[in-house]
Design goal:
The structure is a single chain. The protein is mostly helical and 182 residues long. 74% of the residues lie in helices and 0% in strands. The chain is built from ten helices and no strands. The longest helix is centred in the middle third of the chain and has 26 residues. The radius of gyration is 16 Å and the shape is globular.
C-alpha cells in the first residue's frame, strides 16, 4: 500500500481529481444499490417524494461505465485547466454551483416537457466548465459551442437518450457564471 501511495505526488491531489474520485465512488455506490440510478438521478421523485438531494447527486450518478469515463475525461481536461488558471476553490465553486443551477433548470424541462426522464451524469456541470472557458477564451469559443452542439445532437440522431437540454443549459450557466465572476 505504501508503494502505491508513493506513486502519487502532491500534484495528483487536485480539486478536479478529487471531484473525479468522488464521482467514481458515487457511481460504484449507485450501481450497487437497487434502483440506484432512480434514487440518485434527477426525476419526478425530487418533488413527489422530496428527494431533495437529487439536483446534487445527479451530477455524480451516471448511465454506464462509458458515460462515466467520457465525462470524467472531459472533467479532467477542463477542470484541471481552470484549476491551474483560477485555483482549487474556483473550480469547486464553479462545478458545484453551476452544476446545481443546471440541474434545477434541467428539472424545469423535465417537469414541464418530459416527465418520464431520469437525468444522470455530470454533462451539465461539465458543459458549464466549457461555457466558463468559452467566456474567457474568445479564440476557442466557436469551437467549444460547436463541440457542445455535436455532443448534444449527434447522439440524438443515432437514437441515444441524451439530455441535450442539460448540455445547452450548462453551457449558458457557465458563460453567465464567468461573466458574473470576472
Amino acid at each position: 500500500m505504501k508503494t502505491v501511495l508513493k506513486r502519487f505526488s502532491k500534484q495528483d491531489f487536485t480539486a478536479t481529481n478529487i471531484l473525479i474520485f468522488i464521482t467514481v465512488v458515487m457511481y460504484i455506490i449507485q450501481i450497487n444499490i437497487p434502483q440506484g440510478g432512480l434514487l440518485f438521478g434527477l426525476n419526478l421523485y425530487f418533488m413527489v417524494y422530496d428527494f431533495w438531494w437529487q439536483p446534487l447527486s445527479t451530477m455524480f450518478a451516471h448511465g454506464g461505465i462509458g458515460h462515466l469515463g467520457m465525462n470524467m475525461f472531459v472533467l479532467w481536461q477542463f477542470g484541471n485547466l481552470i484549476e491551474r488558471a483560477r485555483g482549487a476553490k474556483e473550480i469547486i465553486a464553479l462545478y458545484l454551483i453551476s452544476g446545481l443551477i443546471t440541474s434545477i433548470l434541467s428539472f424545469g424541462y423535465i417537469f414541464y416537457l418530459d416527465n418520464s426522464v431520469n437525468l444522470v451524469g455530470a454533462s451539465g456541470a461539465i458543459c458549464a466548465l466549457l461555457g466558463f472557458v468559452a467566456y474567457y477564451d474568445k479564440a476557442q469559443r466557436s469551437g467549444i459551442i460547436t463541440w457542445v452542439l455535436l455532443i448534444s445532437v449527434a447522439p440524438l440522431i443515432i437514437g441515444l437518450p441524451i439530455a441535450w437540454y442539460a448540455h445547452f443549459i450548462g453551457l449558458a450557466v457557465g458563460f453567465i457564471y464567468a461573466f458574473i465572476r470576472r
